[in-house]
Design a protein that fits this description.
Length: 333
């Protein structure tokens, strides 16, 4: 088969949306809708570009590359993030995927010796994304994350009365101080400050933890791919009468937000306080709030209605020695 790889532009937006509609998300609960602008999500992370794989003037695959500033070894460092690995199901098992990645890697070799990507552990195409090939380097795991969703229609436990909204400047001041030692923590001050709501957990001695609330719905919607479990709907019903937002029917948008860019002055996990605050102040707008945790941190969250999805972050190429994942807010990706 003859393939062509090109850089994609805004004129290819509809072709990308059509391709995304055919893709496996690795979850049977949701599908992802990137309309109306497929490119918008990447712009919120950093400088993005997309490579497209064509077969007879038909877009059959794509790969996104975004340069994101992250803290590595205590320094602000640009890192290349590989994302939106998509291939039309009709070309699964062919050389198409490797041809796309090979061409993208060639184009990136002058910019960086390595890149990273995140793969859902449930992704049915996981083996193809990880194995080495003469066209593509093998992936090396650098850390696992648990993408935790907590129900906001339930009264969650936590020191919510100590939580307050703070300014972007105050949030960044403390976040930077606490996040610098965390490998892979987000390090783009300007994008950190854009949009969203910032929360701080305050004690008598000052702030203990900060986070940013992000609603990605304008650029990345979660759509219920099937009816949600009956038990979840049954337990939600009484809280609906008290003003909690409705759970989505099949093919409707799932109202959720992200508790992102969390950082704390101490090892203790203060996220429960933020979840408890959201359950009391934001339950009329969102059904769930998500955050990224290490597998060890996730063990403490035993709510039966919590959603837990696992992913592994991989490095491709020649990454820095002893590279590891310590900041798990990349759940946003």
């Amino acid at each position: 088969m003859n393939y062509a790889v090109t850089l994609l532009t805004e004129e290819h937006n509809q072709a990308l949306l059509d391709l995304a509609a055919t893709s496996d998300t690795g979850s049977d609960l949701f599908v992802i809708d990137r309309s109306p602008d497929f490119f918008a999500l990447g712009r919120t992370w950093g400088e993005s570009r997309y490579y497209g794989l064509w077969r007879r003037e038909r877009l059959i695959g794509c790969l996104g590359v975004t340069r994101i500033d992250r803290f590595l070894a205590g320094e602000k460092t640009p890192a290349l993030y590989l994302h939106d690995f998509r291939l039309h199901p009709a070309f699964t098992g062919t050389r198409a995927y490797f041809r796309l990645v090979h061409e993208a890697v060639k184009a990136l070799q002058g910019e960086s010796r390595w890149a990273y990507g995140i793969v859902w552990d449930s992704n049915s195409h996981r083996p193809s994304l990880l194995r080495g090939d003469r066209l593509f380097p093998a992936a090396a795991p650098i850390g696992q994350s648990v993408h935790l969703g907590m129900p906001l229609f339930l009264p969650l436990a936590g020191d919510w009365k100590q939580v307050e909204e703070i300014s972007a400047g105050e949030a960044w001041k403390h976040y930077e101080q606490w996040a610098v030692p965390l490998s892979f923590a987000f390090a783009d001050r300007e994008r950190f400050a854009e949009g969203g709501v910032f929360l701080g957990l305050r004690s008598a001695d000052g702030l203990l933890a900060v986070c940013k609330l992000v609603d990605q719905t304008p650029v990345r919607k979660l759509i219920a791919s099937r009816s949600l479990p009956p038990l979840l709907r049954m337990l939600h019903a009484p809280f609906r009468l008290r003003g909690a937002i409705a759970l989505p029917a099949k093919r409707n948008v799932f109202p959720h937000l992200y508790l992102a860019h969390y950082a704390s002055a101490e090892p203790r996990d203060h996220r429960p306080a933020f979840f408890a605050y959201l359950a009391r102040r934001w339950q009329r707008r969102y059904a769930y709030a998500f955050t990224g945790l290490s597998p060890e941190e996730a063990k403490a969250y035993r709510n039966p209605l919590a959603i837990k999805l696992r992913s592994t972050t991989y490095a491709y190429g020649d990454p820095p020695r002893d590279l590891s994942l310590a900041a798990h807010e990349i759940t946003l990706m």
